[in-house]
Design a protein that fits this description.
This protein is of the alpha+beta class. It is 64% helix and 13% strand. It has five helices and three strands. It has a three-stranded antiparallel sheet with strand order 1-3-2. Helix 1 packs antiparallel against helix 4 and helix 2 packs across helix 4.
């Protein structure tokens, strides 16, 4: 697994960061709006945003004193690709197991 995929899964491992990603799925938001639902100090919350940004899941822009975050869907593409590969691998393995079990059942009969 690549370092980028590791960073994405690390970033998404925390429930607060997943909640931020879910919220940003509805559109961009400024830091205060994103932090409002969480019971944590703003500097702590900003660390979570930084982890998401370093992983390439979100991007920010600053306009005056307001920093706005939005999803960076391309950042998730590598993780999505890795998950698709895993799905294919397990589908093949499960198909092989199914075929083996059918063969065993037929030889038993």
């Amino acid at each position: 697994m690549s370092e980028a995929v590791d960073a994405i899964f690390h970033a998404l491992a925390h429930p607060s960061r997943r909640a931020v990603v879910a919220r940003l799925g509805h559109g961009p938001a400024h830091v205060g709006e994103l932090a409002r639902p969480f019971d944590m100090a703003l500097p702590t919350f900003c660390q979570h945003l930084r982890v998401l940004e370093l992983a390439g899941i979100v991007r920010s822009r600053k306009q005056g004193r307001i920093r706005t975050y939005e999803l960076a869907p391309a950042g998730l593409a590598e993780a999505e690709s890795w998950l698709a590969e895993q799905r294919k691998l397990w589908e093949v393995r499960l198909d092989q197991l199914d075929a083996l079990l059918l063969t065993l059942k037929e030889t038993k009969s």
